[in-house]
Amino acid sequence: MTTIERLWEDFQLPIRDALHYADGRSCDVDLDSDASSGLRVLAPFDLDEMLESDPSRVSSVDGLVAVDLGSRGLLWAGEGSYGSEGFIARLTVDRALIWAIFFAESNPFDRIQLFGTEATFSSTSGFEITVDIDDPGTSASGRLGSRNG
Q1: Are the C-beta atoms of 12 and 58 separated by less than 8 Å?
Q2: What is d(CA 12, CA 105) in angstroms, rounded to the nearest whole number?
Q3: Phi/psi zone of residue 139: left (φ > 0), alpha (ψ -120 to 50 degrees), beta?
Q4: Which of 38, 72, 75, 83 measures 20 to 30 Å from 132, CA to CA?
């Protein structure tokens, strides 16, 4: 079992703007409205190393909204321990993690719209993230931006 899977069993994610896959891969992410996808996937990092230096850098997450994908699992989104945090995730039918993206400053995500294999997640502060639900790290058509209003 990978570190991220162990954290997910307790509904926790690392406090770092990052994309995590159940197989243990983690990459930093950046909100970038100038990028064609709007979401820039940055360099990979070692989650074990990060938590070894500061094991308290985790946030408890709680879902606010879900979309049932039937036999393909579900999409789940919500908030972290602090008001500014938000997360989006794809889970198996048994609620095991497939992938998750955590943001320290997005505010909670409270809406999901599904369009085929793309989903748009919207936060309470106006962020909209559109990703390929099969692999959000390679989504060329994903859009991430901030709308005020």
Answers
A1: yes
A2: 17
A3: beta
A4: 83
Each of the 149 residues of the chain gets a pLDDT tens digit; together they read 999 999 999 999 999 999 999 999 999 998 766 655 557 889 999 999 999 999 999 999 999 999 999 999 999 999 999 989 999 999 999 999 999 999 999 999 999 999 999 998 999 988 888 889 999 987 543 333 333 33
Residue 149 has which token pair?
């209003």
What span, in angstroms and rounded, lies between the C-alpha atoms of 73 and 92? 4
Residue 90 CA, chain-centre distance (Å), reads 8
- CA 139 to the chain's CA centroid: 14
Phi/psi zone of residue 105: left (φ > 0), alpha (ψ -120 to 50 degrees), beta? alpha
What distance in Å separates the CA atoms of residue 128 and residue 109, rounded to the nearest whole number?
Answer: 9
* DSSP sequence for 71-98: GG-EEEEEE-SSTT-EEEEEE-TTS-EE
CA distance linking residue 42 with residue 67, whole number of Å = 28
